[in-house]
Amino acid sequence: FHRTHMLRMCQNGMSFFSLDRPFQSLLYVHDAVAQRDFEPALPSVPDDVLEEDEDSVKIVSLVKTKEPLGATIKRDESTGAIVVARIMKGGPADKSGLIHEGDELKEVNGISLECKKPKEIIPLLACSQNEVKFKIIPALSKDEMSNKKKLFVRALFDYDPVEDPTIPCQDAALAFKRGNILQIVSMNDDTWWQALHIGDSSSNRARLIPSQQLQERCPFYYIVHLFYQNYSGSRRSFRLGKKSRWARERARSWRWSTGVHGLVCPSTYTEVIPHHKDSKERPRLVVLVGPGGVGVNELKRRLLISDPERYGVTVPYTSRPKRKQENEGVEYHFVSVHTFEEHILNQRFIEYGRYKGHYYGTCLDSLHKVLAEGKVCLVDVHPSSIKHVYTCEFKPYVVFVKPPRIEELRLTRRRAKFICDDVGTNPEEDFEDMMDMAETMESHYGHLFDKVIVNGDIATALRELKADLKKLEEADVQWFPAEWFCSSPTTAQRSCSHLSGWI
Ligand SMILES: Nc1ncnc2c1ncn2[C@@H]1O[C@H](COP(=O)(O)OP(=O)(O)OP(=O)(O)O)[C@@H](O)[C@H]1O
């Protein structure tokens, strides 16, 4: 029965009962209930009550009755904060649903609880009338507690929600680029995680990103494309560059050792942890990788010439006899076959091979020597060899040198002197090989690359590389793969199974 309805009926003479006192009382009660007049009026929250960190502060007003609030408080031993120890079931605090165990009490009725003992707080509550106003920092939920560990990841792919038809809400999604650092704040949903973009001060709100599981559901065409690309019969080998035969050997052995299994598991995210630079720390090892002939050696050479005080390169080891004009430790370290093989057995080589019956290789000792001089050590290896230096000791910064689009490759390499072992080679085939190999390297080892430099115009590529390395040297905080700090230091196997350990 609505009051106006009843009044209208009365006014129309359709009186079921006279407007005597009980009926008036009924209407009065109805009005009071409808307007929630029975609750004491709570004053609005003053503007100055919120601090800068307003996200984490909550103002709670509870109606004070004769009944206790039904909560116990205690002083946290480690922080000194006053926290809610218990909420008694069925009590006013419990019924309100606004105060929870673990909440930190900052103020009671505008009085700061800093340095106060629990027994000093009880009288504050006792003397409040009608309402008690708390300023609290809510306790973290179980989910938030797990985020306390702060899980950071480096994105290993570009993501643009505009191009993703599966995203449940485009406005709530986070666009990111490969290499961006994200803090995962919720993994509750199997398909969409919530993350913050570290370093993007414009937004401190969590947004949706595809979960690892979702991202791994690689579209079928992608798998088929990669499968055929790798199993379409014998691929041509490299013919560009001075080390064409060596490169060819490397490429061949690598091509058949990888197999298709890695392809069905695209790179998603890799766990990283922040590392604050220590002034006494040795510079990071800079590893340059790329398909044969792309210009890895050219960039390394130019970088070295540009600042020989800052950069250093390793001297390779060889079992080849020293030539007249050569000096020990300059062109090579000349060692016997026996010594070389001993080093192999002791896993002292990052990479080694045989060429014209002689061993050649890059020894860990050479890296240590350059780093001990306080120089940035530049090495170029096949990406499959990165694992030998993928440790906290070397903290490698891996730069992938990528060929530009084929048209630009033709244009820029027209005048380049490719010294080829094979007679009558077709540069066009070499370019195609280079492009193919770059794509395959990226799909297999892209998760290890910190930086991708497209080597179109050599001067531009060098400038970009120098600027990037300078930025790296100056950064106070760097993001290192979590696996460097795990017990097994040489595990560069960033397979899906590795990620499933923590995700
Ligand atoms: N951006 C560029 N523009 C034109 N020529 C280039 C460029 N980059 C490299 N070159 C030339 O291409 C040739 C191959 O380069 P480089 O020797 O550095 O290749 P690489 O990646 O080290 O391969 P490899 O290990 O097979 O030698 C060289 O003659 C080099 O001068």
Polypeptide structure, described:
- The structure is a single chain.
- This protein has five domains: 3-34, no CATH class; 47-139, Pdz3 Domain; 144-216, SH3 Domains (SH3 type barrels, Roll); 220-310 and 375-500, Rossmann fold (3-Layer(aba) Sandwich); 313-366, Guanylate Kinase phosphate binding domain (2-Layer Sandwich).
- The protein has 15 helices and 21 strands.
- The chain has helices at residues 3-11, 21-34, 92-96, 118-126, 142-147, 212-216, 220-230, 244-258, 296-306, 337-345, 364-372, 406-413, 427-445, 458-474, 496-500, and strands at 58-63, 71-75, 82-87, 104-108, 111-112, 131-137, 151-155, 181-186, 192-197, 207-210, 269-276, 286-289, 311-313, 317-318, 333-334, 349-355, 358-363, 376-380, 397-402, 451-454, 477-481.
- The strands form four sheets. Strands 1, 2, 3, 4, 5 and 6 form a six-stranded antiparallel beta sheet that branches. Strands 10-9-8-7-11-21 form a six-stranded antiparallel beta sheet.
- Helix 9 (296-306) crosses helix 14.
- The longest helix has 19 residues, at 427-445.
- The protein is elongated, with a radius of gyration of 34 Å.
- Residues 240-243, 247, 290, 292-298, 412-413, 416-418, 455, 458, 461 line the site of adenosine-5'-triphosphate.
- Belongs to the MAGUK family.
- Residues 148-219 form the SH3 domain.
- This is Membrane protein, palmitoylated 7b (MAGUK p55 subfamily member 7).
